[in-house]
Amino acid sequence: MVAFASSLDQAGPMARSAADCAALLSAMAGPDIDRDSTSLDHPAEDYSAAIHDPREGATAAQPLKGLRIGLPTEFFGAGCAPDVLAAVHGALGEYEKLGATLVDISLPRTELSIPVYYIIAPAEASSNLSRFDGVKFGHRAAKYDDLLDMYKKSRSEAFGPEVQRRIMIGTYVLSHGYYDAYYLKAQQIRRLIAQDFQSAFERCDLIAGPVAPTVAWKIGEKSDDPLANYLADIYTLSTSLAGLPGMSVPAGFGAGGMPVGLQLVGNYFQEGALLQAAHAFQQATDWHTRSPSGF
Fold it and tell me: Residue 159 falls within a domain, yes or no?
């Protein structure tokens, strides 16, 4: 769920359902060449209409008839908590009732997504944040002795521990003598990860699995454990590295009454099919309307 500041002292949800997400994406999608030179020149779509487009052979009881959902074996292994697997399998059972067919697939380089991402992302962070030195951009320290001291204090005050950690890692992997060994190699593996997805999409229309190997954490619960935070991304990072559209759909509750998310991944420019599958699931279940125990 995405929140926005609705007033100075309160926030409200921007989207409560896949239908809401479709309406928002319809408003945001499309090229913006005049204001963003990196904007892809791809025509906008009406995703609100797309979620209601009838599939060939579909019925009222089975609106997703013919949809092939791929299940990566790497997402359902021993590293995933039993309560998470139970909730995800329950959600997949609902998809079968809606007419979808489950297909076993493989994304063999899933385990490489964490080291690859945490080389590429810090490198990009280091490069992009280098201009925030307190001179033309960013926070400037109130007191400093000379130019170098201003750089140090401004960046130390402005960036939190995780940002500083990523800047240091990124600077290291981009440095002379390490660029080829780390950053270039990570980019090569990134391309192989993207190829794995394209091979999988030859056998299925969407890919599904857990969002994380555990239930959602309480706010601040793992804030002092960066490694745990990194490892929790094992199922989602490969999607980001491949540049594919993906979404998390509430799919039940696990240990401690905390939420479990079902990840849905589509091929390039298949956001409509992704939102349609999520919407159909939310018409058949009410997980997206329920809150964790004690909240």
Answer: yes
